[in-house]
Amino acid sequence: MLKISAQSNLLAFAMLALSSNALSKDISYDYVQGTYSSLTDSGLGFDVDGNGFAFAGSFSISPNIAVTALFGATSFDRFLGIDVDVAELDFGITAHTSVAPNTDVFGNFSVVNTEIEASDGFTTVTDDDTGNAISFGLRHMASEKAEISMGFSRVDIFSDTGNTFGFGVRFYANNKFSVGIGYSTGDDVDTLLLSARIELK
Asked: How far apart are CA 111 and CA 51, in angstroms?
C-alpha cells in the first residue's frame, strides 16, 4: 500500500539523515542537515514517483548519547486522479560507540508522527498516527575526505511495520561542511538521497 510505502521512504530519511550520525574527522554527533529525496513506489503494481525533503539535527548530551529531531515531507505525482502528500516529525535518541579505528556503530530509537493527505481536487482526506522507529547502522571513514555508511531501520506505525535498508557515501569539503549521496530500498520503495550537512562542533 502507498501509505506504508511512503512511511518507509520517510524512515530512510531517519536512517541516512537523522539517526545516521555520520563520522566526520572528529566523529562529530553535532550537526544540522538538509536532505532531498527522489523515490519510486511500486507497491500498487505500477510505479508512482515522488520527491521529498527533510531537515534533521543531532545534538550530543554525553560522549556516547545524542538527541535527534527530524521533519520530512514527500509529495507524490498524481495517480488515479489523486494527489498524496506525507509529512513526518521524529524525536529520538541515539547511542553510539567506536568498534575500530574510524568506525562507529549506532542504534537509534525515535517516536514518529506521520500525517498522510490525499486529495482529488474536491475532497481531501487525512490520516495520522504516532508510532516508533528503530535504526541500527555502521559508519566508517574510508579516508580523510570520504565516509561510507550502511544501516537498517524498522518502523511500527499505522498498525503495520516497514523495513528499510540503505547505504551512502559522504564527502567532506572541510571539517564543517560535507555532502552525501545515498540509496535506500524497502517495501517496494527505492529512494535516492542527496544531502548537505554542517557540523556544529
From this structure: 23
What is the C-alpha separation between 57 and 66, in angstroms, rounded? Answer: 10
Number of domains in the chain: 1
Q: What is the pLDDT of residue 3?
A: 44
Cα–Cα distances in angstroms (integers) from residue 115 to residues 7, 139, 152, in the given order = 10, 31, 23
Instruction: Determine the distance from the C-alpha atom of residue 2 to the mean position of all C-alpha atoms in its chain, rounded to a whole number.
Output: 18
> pLDDT tier at 9 (50, 70, 90 boundaries)?
low
> What pLDDT does 57 receive?
97
Q: Is the confidence at residue 143, as pLDDT, over 90?
A: no
Measuring CA to CA, which residue among 77, 78, 95, 88 is closest to residue 38? 77
Region 53-79: what's the mean pLDDT? 95
168-56-10 Cα angle (round to 5)? 65
The pLDDT-based confidence of 144 (bands split at 50, 70, 90) is confident
For the chain, the C-alpha Rg in angstroms (whole number) is 17
If you write DSSP's letter for every residue of 47-74 in order, what string do you get? -EEEEEEEEEEEEEEETTEEEEEEEEEE
Alpha helices in the chain (DSSP H): 2-13
Give me the domain span that covers residue 79.
2-199
CATH code, domain with 182: 2.40.160.20
